[in-house]
Each structure stands twice: as C-alpha cells, then as structure tokens.
Amino acid sequence: MNRKPIHAFAALVAAGTLLAGCAALGPKHPVGNAAAPQPAKSVDLTRYLGRWYELARYEQGFQKDCDSVTADYSLREDGGIAVLNSCVKPDGKKTSATGKAKIVDEATKAKLKVSFFGPFYGDYWVLDHAEDYSWSIVGEPSGRYLWLLSRDANPGQARLDELTARARALGYDTSMLRITKQP
Length: 183
Known about the structure:
The chain has helices at 4-25, 45-48, 157-169; strands spanning 50-58, 67-75, 81-88, 94-103, 111-117, 120-129, 135-139, 146-150, 177-179. The chain is α+β, with helices and mostly antiparallel strands and 183 residues long. Strands 1-2-3-4-5-6-7-8 form an eight-stranded antiparallel β-barrel. Strand 6 and strand 7 (135-139) form a beta hairpin. The termini are far apart.
C-alpha cells in the first residue's frame, strides 16, 4: 500500500488547521460597518481593469504604513483577473503582491474573490463606482475592510471628501480611514 498520498493529505490538513488557528488567534481588525451593504450597481470588468490609486483605506496589517498604493487589474488568458498591488513603505522600499481574482457573482460582476496566497481567497466587493469609472469604493461582507480608489493619483480634496461622504452614506465609520499619500 502506498502511504505517500495519505501522508500528503494529512500534512495538507495539518497546515490548513494551523493557518485557521493562527487566523482565529490573531488580532481582528475593527469592524467599520456592522451591516456592510451589497454592491450598488453592476460592474463592466473591461472598464474596471487597469490602474487604480488608493486614496484612503481601513489600515490592515498587510498594508501597514503603506503609501503610494496602486492596484493594477488585467485580464488573464484563462478569463480570470490578474492583480498586482504595490506600495511604498516609510523607508522608501517598494513592495508588491501578485494575486488573482475570480468573479463570484456573474449577474453583476461586482463580487469577486481575490487570492494572494495559494488556494485562500478573500471577498472583494465593488460597492459603488462612478459611471465613468473614475472612482470606486471597495469593501467586503465583514465590514472590516474598505478602500477608496481613484483613477487619478491626486484627484483633489473635493473628490476625497465626496468619496468619504459616499462611504459614510453606505454605513462606514469614516473616522477609521487612513488617508493614503500619493506622489
């Protein structure tokens, strides 16, 4: 009897259990919206693809102290979406993470799952966006994550105020937002 598949499966289960345990024990990010809304409108993915600049976010460990944050989305050959997130740390070092996304709501294409780490996916909901795709508000069902995005790195205070007010109208605690510095 070949025990290699059994040992490999046992190792995979143990690794998954360890990761789940670490996630459960780790600090939880504060909830900024206990009743996170559903996406407001459908998304035309061909118009959503391209570069987005982060204007503000709920601070997360994986983005701690990041500025000059960008997210680039492109279509992959398999029909999925390639994701490249970049930022600059306070010491000037640029970091990036490459991932992939898949649509989970074919009707609106506003709900996606994104992975930067193997088979583990997180929710990515385009909660609202401008008709011309000049801005976007992204969150997920737990209300712990929020990003205000723009096609323009420096759209001005009026646009930031507009997006902050829109996020507040969606039920988010905007006092938790960290403004992102862009070059």
